Amino acid sequence: MSFITRGFGGRSRDRDERLPPGQTLVHDFPVLSAGPTPEVDTADWAFTIHTETGVDHRWTWDDLMALPIEDVSTDIHCVTHWSKLGTSWRGIALDTLFADVETGYDYTMAHSYGGYTTNVPLDDLLDGKAWVAFEFDGEPLPAEHGGPARLIVPHLYFWKSAKWVRGLDMIERDEPGFWEQNGYHLRGDPWKEERYW
What's the whole-number mean pLDDT along residues 169-192? Predict the structure, then answer.
């Protein structure tokens, strides 16, 4: 008896050029999480950027909804070898949130409700590269996909797009978050197959 696992079906001759090496196209939206799904009510949700000087920049849900909202169409790539192309999101650009933040640090640690963390260099969050997203495919983001809001950093593997995001701490050095402490790459560029280190 032989088994074929999705993601290990070999190379197709008509491989889509939008697929990074080692990725397989999916049409569903797989749900992968490191722990239980937290249920966070928007009335209790807040997002904070904590700087090295101790200053907190904080937004409630209502504060977030009052900021300029962007529609984002992008491909997403999971380290477990699946890619979903042309996904549609709505959210707030990290550029908007960082507009009044003064920091001399080049790295961040993202924190989520439920305790998850992931490190992301500041350069990977700014210049139109990342969002705090609250809608997917025209609907409020469901909890299993990180709702009410998640980080979207689509040019990196999807574990960097922290579900249930609640904030970013500015950090001096690039320190590993949850998956990075367990062997995942510190940066996670899918085009370089930076899966593990």
Answer: 96
